[in-house]
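Below is a filled-in request sheet from our internal design queue. Each sheet records the structural input a requester submitted and the sequence that came back. We keep these sheets so that new team members can see what a complete request looks like end to end.

REQUESTER: design group, bay 2
PRIORITY: normal
MODE: inverse folding
CHAIN LENGTH: 120
BACKBONE (tokenized):
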């Protein structure tokens, strides 16, 4: 097991709950007014999904040790994908939306590397 991925996954889950609640309550009117509610919810969902992916990767690494690159791809994906969407929602700087796909690609690469590591 890789504790780094287990802890990172747990942190992503914790932040997903905290940021989701913050968005649903404290930022509700702000997000609705800026038309960014769905964008914010997407950032939270993908943070959750990939938090679970990190925990899964950390657990699977005991049986399939070649999953390190997959785990780091998930971490990078969370930071860039969800991070850029949270920043976009908070600042309204639209160019941040151009960065988001880089995080999405990192997440896709993480899943591909997970498959590769398991099949190796």
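RETURNED SEQUENCE:
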């Amino acid at each position: 097991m890789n504790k780094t991925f287990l802890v990172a996954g747990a942190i992503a889950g914790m932040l997903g709950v905290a940021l989701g609640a913050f968005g649903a309550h404290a930022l509700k009117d702000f997000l609705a007014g800026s038309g960014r509610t769905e964008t914010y919810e997407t950032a939270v969902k993908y943070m959750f999904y990939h938090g679970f992916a990190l925990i899964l990767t950390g657990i699977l690494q005991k049986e399939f040790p070649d999953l390190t690159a997959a785990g780091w791809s998930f971490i990078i994906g969370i930071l860039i994908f969800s991070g850029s969407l949270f920043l976009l929602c908070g600042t309204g700087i639209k160019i941040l939306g151009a960065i988001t796909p880089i995080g999405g690609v990192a997440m896709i690469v993480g899943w591909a590397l997970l498959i590769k590591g398991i099949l190796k």
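SHEET NOTES:
- The two ends are 17 Å apart (CA to CA).
- The chain has a mean pLDDT of 96.
FILED BY: M.R.
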